[in-house]
């Protein structure tokens, strides 16, 4: 398996896979996240097929409840 270098929320990491695999690997609940890749929003229905590429910049925003 080839490992790629991507940037996730301003932190470099080695990863090879889809957006969904990335979220699960960093223990985030996909139901409470929004994801942008290189500044473009990626729809949730594309996460399981959207394969990240070397040099991609991924922004993950998690929604939290509170008051």
Automatic annotation (TrEMBL):
<dbReference type="InterPro" id="IPR010035">
    <property type="entry name" value="Thi_S"/>
</dbReference>
<dbReference type="InterPro" id="IPR016155">
    <property type="entry name" value="Mopterin_synth/thiamin_S_b"/>
</dbReference>
<protein>
    <submittedName>
        <fullName>Sulfur carrier protein ThiS</fullName>
    </submittedName>
</protein>
<dbReference type="InterPro" id="IPR003749">
    <property type="entry name" value="ThiS/MoaD-like"/>
</dbReference>
<dbReference type="Pfam" id="PF02597">
    <property type="entry name" value="ThiS"/>
</dbReference>
<dbReference type="InterPro" id="IPR012675">
    <property type="entry name" value="Beta-grasp_dom_sf"/>
</dbReference>
